[in-house]
Design a protein that fits this description.
Structural class: alpha+beta
CATH topology: Aminopeptidase
CATH superfamily: Gcn5-related N-acetyltransferase (GNAT)
Number of domains: 1
Radius of gyration: 15 Å
Number of helices: 3
Largest sheet: 6 strands, mixed
Helix content: 10-25%
Distance between the termini: 37 Å
CATH architecture: 3-Layer(aba) Sandwich
Shape: globular
Length: 155
């Protein structure tokens, strides 16, 4: 784990909550958290294989720590879009239920905006599950606008 960077740390309920970019060689630490998003039908081995492959692509991941404990994660895919220029797609935002409704999500998104702006991005986009109504409210409150639907087809 990387050293504590006070610039990217926040004090919350007398605990230090901080956001750090997880080094690609440590990416497997988020594997257990991915079960929270409904990956229960994907084997742990497959999740780990995919994470290792993602870490070699244009993917970065934020670890959310309460002290030394990983309590959440937020993936980021960097790309250039014809309609947006350099952008970041936020992926699999997870905060353990025991740490929700404490303002961590808002602070996380501030970290994302600052981090991606410094990387030259002018657009942040994301997908959220249709049935995840609390996330819809959260992202609307963050200023996100629903621009379309995300369709998938298994091949």
């Amino acid at each position: 784990m990387t050293k504590l960077n006070l610039k990217n740390s926040y004090i919350l309920n007398h605990n230090t909550v901080r956001f750090e970019i997880i080094p690609s060689e440590d990416i497997l630490i988020i594997a257990p958290l991915l079960r929270v998003l409904g990956s229960e039908n994907t084997s742990e081995e497959t999740i780990k294989e995919r994470l290792l492959e993602m870490a070699q692509q244009s993917y970065e991941c934020i670890g959310i720590y309460d002290g030394e404990h990983l309590i959440g994660t937020c993936g980021m895919w960097f790309q250039t879009r014809h309609y947006a220029g350099k952008s970041c797609e936020v992926d699999h935002v997870i905060i353990l239920e025991s740490h929700r409704n404490r303002g961590i999500g808002k602070k996380l998104m501030t970290f994302v905006y600052d981090y991606t702006s410094k990387k030259g991005c002018n657009w942040v986009e994301l997908n959220t599950y249709v049935h995840n109504f609390p996330s819809h409210k959260f992202y609307y409150n963050e200023g996100f606008v629903a621009k379309g639907y995300h369709f998938v087809k298994t091949l």
